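step=predict obj=NAD(P)-binding protein n=507
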Amino acid sequence: MDQLLRAAGQWPFWCSLILPLLVFYLFQINRLLSGTPDTVRRLSPARWTKEMLFETYKRLEKRPITIDTYVDQLPPKLDRRYIVTGGSGLVGGHIVLQLLARGQHPASIRIVDFQKPHRHDMLDGPASDVDFVQTDISSSESTDRAFSKAWHPSVAHLPLTVFHTAAIITPSDRSKLVYGFCEAVNVRGTQHVVSAARRSGADILVSTTSGSISIRPVEYWVQPWKLWSSWPRNFFQILDETDFFEPLRPHEDFYANYPVSKAVAERIVCEANTADFRTGCIRPANGVYGNPTDNTVGSALQSATMFPQWTDHIVQSFVHGANAAIAHLLFEAVLTSPDSSSRPQAGRPFTVTDPNPPITYGDLYYALSLLAITGFRTLRLPPMLLLLPSYIVEWYTLLLARFKVARVLLPSAKGDIQHLKPALFSITTHLVATNAAASRPVEQGGLGYRGVLTSMDGMVQEVVEWNREHMDSSKPRKTYRTSVSFADDIQRLSSAATSVGALQLRD
């Protein structure tokens, strides 16, 4: 008893010693997470200025970028039929529009998606005449029905290309406990698409995977004795395809469930490559944008309040949906010859990004604050102020996932807070993608890829279109469903259906 009393009496002393050290340690980690290594600075040396942005805005306001402005840079039209899974979305929608722009008849294109096209650029003109089949690719029966639907007699005899862009994006879930949601659509869905494509006689399949596959988890908690001599491990990463040529990494070596599922799906597609069924994958760089429905520019523009962020110093590569779509068409052109299955391009992925050095999130935020007529302001928060609570949010969501009684008694996390988990900080660190392999000439094993839009042109063009839609200040700010919010909706519907089914079984 005396020993316990003496230990209790020493407790204030140890707290007074340890607490300042802990605060000092957290302060130093925050300093590192707020920094930019010199290597990264050299890769992105120039910042966007007011003069550059105003000049770009005025130019694009007078002559907006449309498919017609770069149609001559698309691969030539091919006499084929097309199924585009996820054709209502960002990259898939651009593929559909580019196919039409280069002369493809609407009757030869079919969109296979869970949701109808809702992008404003697909609601009229030739795109509105493209066939749409609502499909849940996580169901083999639903996928088979979409692929086996009869074609118009004028195109039924043509060879078939499948562009598989459909996916579910959950940016910050990393636990195997909740992996099933991504796996159902991104892995089993890809298996269903590959099988249905083969049964339908397709001889080319190009799939959209993700540059995030190569991202490894950032190790934020630097050893105390290394705080002044090193950055957090993986704080800066190059995104390329080298990991594809190595054994698949274990689950915990990916930053989240989403890239795990995309890596597995990528290998399913690439391993399916044969002389009769040529395949390959495009890995768009980490941030894909190009429509108000995107998670990068559109999501920020829709923010009606001050936009919280901790990433203005972060350097990343981005890719416009139009650039990613062109890469798919270039890949298809390479695979049209039956002997292409043995070429170095077939059965492998290629990473693509915009044709410019990487930018910072600060460049993007500055452009939005300067140019958006709806107003845009950011609230700069210390990374540590968000990193620490992210562990609590993750613990809470996993508690709900693990225990049914918790789901009954406790509310689920909703809105942006549900994505504030540690994995989110791995995808918001310095990530620079390279086009080196994709940009090589076809005869040298590449795709001959050259993007048609720089990040500045693409992002400013999106603001020009946003401003045009919001000229009437008396009308409310428009909202669009992004791929992340769409995944949230699907997950809630799935959980609700499961709960209802459980109640019915109990009754």
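step=describe
Residues 48-383+408-494 form a domain with the Rossmann fold fold (CATH 3.40.50.720).
step=end
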